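<goal> How does this chain fold?
<body> The protein record starts here
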Amino acid sequence: MAPSMVAGFLALPITLRSSIASSPDAIHYLYLKPHEPKDADEDATRSLFLVNIPITTTPQHLKHLFATQLSGGRVEDVHFSEDSAGRPGIAAGTTKSRKRKRLTAEEIEAGLDKHRLPQVFERDVHISGSTAIIAFVDKPSMELSLKAARKAIKAGKEIVWGEGIEDQLPPLGLKRYQQANQLRYPSRRELLRCVDNYMTAYAQMEDARALENAKKRQMPDEDGFVTVVRGSKGGLRTEDAKGLDEKQRAKDEDRSVNDFYRFQMRERRKAEQEELLKKFGEDRTKVDAMRRKRLSSKG
């Protein structure tokens, strides 16, 4: 008999039904415990941390598991480990309003990964051993769900994964491809929207980096001098006029070079975007030709 506790986690056994009649069902262990992040917030106290979720897990699976199959609390949000947006414990788009602060260039660059091309399929498959954070409506709901999981383990209750919501989930496997019936491409409008969002975030990163560099130029150097820049209201120590002119001239030249390179980068990104759209059109034409050839051969 498997232990009910492993390294502080409750080991909840769930049954995964086999899609092949001749193959037996599998027992999968889902490990859960109260969420205790290093940077705790008010949402962590009403959240559970799950380890080793099945690769087919969806938010519907977890909401059905805790609210219906375990008769526990009501789930508010689900956050998977692969998600790049949102903060731990709360899904993207549901964060509570807080005082907006200016993001640094590094923070904006780290968030560029969330801008992706549109999905072709409606359902993702997780990598083996993935984790998830479940945020309940309140702390009593979380505690009730944890207590229900303990009771189910002690009573040896069989929990069939996704039982009762099969018709609410997008298909997987062969049915997934049969439903699509053909290769699918994102629409031109959706593709442009994703690319524009990425380029907007990239431009914000450049602006933030330029602002940070401008602030650094206002800091005194090792000799205690502050370089004069346009718009600066700070004072300046007395120094040789000739040396100051040469230093300012070099800085102006660097600024003009940097502006030119930024223009080059924008032009290159525009050309890459046009090339991407051109390739999409060529691929679509090839697929259409192959489909017509296949249909004519069948006829």
About this structure: Residues 218-298 form one domain.
